[in-house]
Specification:
Number of helices: 2
Radius of gyration: 26 Å
Shape: globular
Helix content: under 10%
Largest sheet: 24 strands, parallel
Length: about 725
């Protein structure tokens, strides 16, 4: 897409499997790029080693620790050797306080941290990146077993992995953030004891976390696999894929705003444009629970969750999916087994016009298996047009669910489906299934419409006292219903359950408590507000120009996120704010007061108008070798002489960004003048985020006949470094 930029401004305004052992360490080695020397003994923080080469060439023994100095950075590959034991693991970690030590692969090798045939190792406390030549395969942290036998224990925890530009449609185990791979000929290599937990992953092509074969041909099963409490955002393709594993547990993970690059490029030997949020292939007895996925997309599939090919029994329970345009879950298995989808919450999923396997709450594209889809709560706002079921394959028992559909909706043909004891509220299309025990009255959800990130912000879908959904479901037994509901309440194996994802007692709505922690941050002609919710389904914002003088009438109502930006204000005037929470019982008392004074602030970006005549201070990145689409030209600038552009005579994908911009922690606003003469074919947006990829906000760019001012308010910088940029995925000459 041809885009011209000008006058840009960034302005001031668990549970763990196979826990680490506590055996006496044989030796502790320290490594510091800033103060070390490879001639040192390395066994004290006062005389550390310096280089990765020294670490890679040492050969470590059971119980050893290798500690990298916080705040230091290295370029190259970390590939240590040695073998631990079950009683004495070998541990990589950091020492001293400050930012995590950075290992920057810089594309020199396929993996930045490469653990080849290393048993009983732990990789902790590193910041890992690997950006190299577009079109190559890259990984952040990789464990690889190609011994042809079982390898014990691989632990990856507490790391940050960001900016790994593998191939978004390439193979999962060789393109992404963290991979625990098995390979060899014959393919009999496998792992016993894999834990990937507490990692922060962002801006990586293809997969966030992968456990499985490196060559797409699993013949044996890895065991004791736990993927827990990882936070992933802005990934090119899939969030988590477990492939070839017996009884894996995937829980407490969060994935957001991912999948947009699926279908770009290929790795030669493997290419698959289909991506999903969190899914499995070729597993047995997999359990996915307490995970959250939102903002997921993709050129094919694209659902938040997926039971894919060649799986044995799989259970998806107590997961939270919201704002995923391609739907909640894809059921695509081809084996004659039983699958369970129960006690999940889906809010505002669907709405995509994609005509393949996506677009609905449940996308049935399966083979010979049997599905029990029970006790889920599905909410759709009035502006959406999402089918409840899409396609119609496999045998399904759809029971005890609540479908709260305020938008227009539909249901696929019900061949081989049994619908029973469901609640159908809101829209009633002609395709609504026959259900001998259906309810169509209001199920009296506590605060329907609540749509916030975080599983703690889902109490709006509990049931009120007097709800017809209370104890009116059918008990299908503990094998089908499980042991607990979305909210952690125990589920009886014999008594009638509630309908929907909540199985507790009815709740009498009460006026919510006042929000707390209201903070106001000034910008240019605007003030950004944020606060903490104690309850409620929406919020009112009150404003005044004197302390305690907020108007009785709110300036904004129905605010659902716990943040709001008040625009069009006068610079130099101090504004005072309070907020209140609202639910069906009434409006809370007002929060604490906070004030801010908008003003015109200095531009913090380097070369903001590109008047240097080049992209000095900016970085060009492309996942498929089309970085030549970006540049600077003296053609139709909004002001001055130059503007930046993104366009090419062939299809292209390119990002122009400012990286590692050091700024004080706080709230910022990004603004840019953009001219987009043609309509973007795939995706086109500007973004601002922390350098580690957290907290990303986007502004989608649309066709225009001249320059349009785009604004991203309320950018929360919490790491002391920001990254801002422009992404285009477009056809020729756009």
């Amino acid at each position: 897409m041809n885009r011209l930029f000008k006058a840009m401004a960034l302005v001031s305004v668990g549970l763990s499997a196979l826990l680490s052992q506590t055996a006496t360490r044989a030796a502790t080695y320290y490594v510091s790029a800033s103060s070390g020397s490879d001639s040192n003994a390395g066994t004290s923080s006062g005389a550390p080693w310096q280089s990765l080469a020294k670490v890679n060439g040492h050969g470590f023994a059971a119980g050893d620790s290798i500690l990298f100095k916080s705040g230091d950075s290295w370029t190259g590959q970390l590939a240590p050797t040695g073998t631990g034991t079950s009683a004495a693991h070998i541990v990589i970690n950091s020492y001293n306080t400050g930012a995590l030590p950075i290992i920057n692969g810089a594309g020199a090798e396929p993996a930045t941290v490469y653990m080849h045939n290393t048993a009983y190792w732990e990789v902790r406390g590193l910041s890992v990146t690997n950006t190299g030549t577009a079109g190559n395969e890259y990984e952040g942290i990789m464990f690889l077993n190609d011994t042809g036998a079982t390898m014990n224990y691989a632990y990856v925890g507490g790391n940050t992995v960001t900016n790994v530009n593998g191939i978004a449609s390439g193979y999962y185990g060789t393109n992404g953030a963290i991979a625990v791979d098995s390979a060899g000929s014959p393919s009999t290599s496998t792992w016993n004891g894999v834990t990937v937990e507490n990692n922060t992953i962002s801006n990586c092509s293809r997969a966030g976390v992968f456990v499985g074969p490196s060559n797409n041909t699993p013949n044996v099963w890895s065991t004791n696999v736990l993927i827990n409490n990882n936070v992933m955002s802005n990934l090119g393709g899939d969030g988590i894929l477990v492939y070839g594993s017996a009884s894996p547990l995937i829980q407490n993970n969060t994935l957001s705003n991912s999948g947009a690059q699926a279908g770009t490029g290929n790795s030669g030997w493997y290419s698959n444009p289909y991506a999903a949020g969190i899914w499995n292939n070729s597993t047995t007895n997999a359990v996915f629970q307490n995970n959250e996925v939102y903002g997921n997309s993709g050129g094919g599939d694209g659902e938040a969750f997926d039971i894919d090919l060649n799986n044995g029994t799989t259970t998806f329970q107590t997961n939270y999916s919201h704002d995923n345009p391609y739907g909640f879950i894809l059921l695509f298995n081809n084996n004659a087994v039983t699958e369970y989808v129960r006690y999940n919450l889906s809010v505002n999923d669907g709405g995509s016009n994609y005509g393949g396997s996506g677009g609905g709450f449940i996308n049935l594209d399966s083979g010979g298996q049997t599905f029990y889809i029970t006790n889920n709560t599905v909410y759709e706002k009035s502006s959406l047009n999402s089918p409840v079921t899409h396609l119609n394959n496999g045998t399904c028992f759809i029971e005890n669910n609540i479908f709260y559909m305020l938008g227009s909706t539909s249901y696929a043909a019900t061949t081989n489906q049994t619908w029973n004891y469901n609640v159908f509220y809101g829209a009633h299309p002609a395709s609504e299934p026959s259900d001998a025990h259906k309810l169509t009255s209001d199920p009296l959800l506590l605060f329907p419409g609540q749509d916030l990130a975080g599983r703690a912000n889902c109490n709006g879908y509990e049931l009120q006292t007097g709800s017809p959904a209370l104890v009116s479901g059918t008990n299908l037994g503990s094998t089908i219903l499980g042991s607990f509901d979305f909210y952690g309440n125990a589920v009886s194996g014999s008594a009638a359950p509630n309908r929907g994802a909540y199985d507790g007692a009815g709740i009498t709505p009460t006026i919510p408590p006042a929000p707390t922690g209201l903070a106001a941050t000034a910008g240019i002609s605007q003030v950004s507000l944020s606060w903490t919710s104690g309850g409620g389904s929406s919020f009112n914002v009150y404003r005044g120009t004197t302390a305690g003088g907020e108007s009785a009438t709110p300036v904004a109502t129905g605010i659902i996120p716990t943040a709001y930006t008040d625009t069009g204000l006068s610079n130099g005037t101090t504004y005072y704010y309070k907020v209140a929470a609202v639910n069906s019982a009434g409006t809370s008392t007002k929060s604490n007061e906070s004030s801010a004074t908008p003003s015109a602030a200095a531009n913090l970006l380097p070369n903001p108008g590109f008047e240097s005549g080049n992209l000095t201070g900016w970085t060009v990145w492309s996942p498929n070798g089309t970085g030549g689409a970006a540049g600077v030209q003296p053609n139709a600038p909004r002001s001055g002489i130059y503007n930046a552009y993104e366009t090419l005579g062939s299809a292209f994908k390119v990002d122009i960004s400012v990286n590692s911009l050091v700024v004080p922690n706080g709230t910022y606003t990004m603004t840019a003048w953009v001219w987009a003469p043609t309509v973007p074919s795939n995706s086109c947006y500007m973004y601002a985020e922390n350098q580690d990829g957290t907290g990303q906000l986007q502004a989608n760019i649309s066709q225009s006949s001249g320059y349009v001012l785009y604004t991203i308010p309320n950018v929360q910088i919490t790491t002391g470094q920001a990254q801002v940029g422009f992404w285009s995925d477009a056809l020729a000459n756009q």
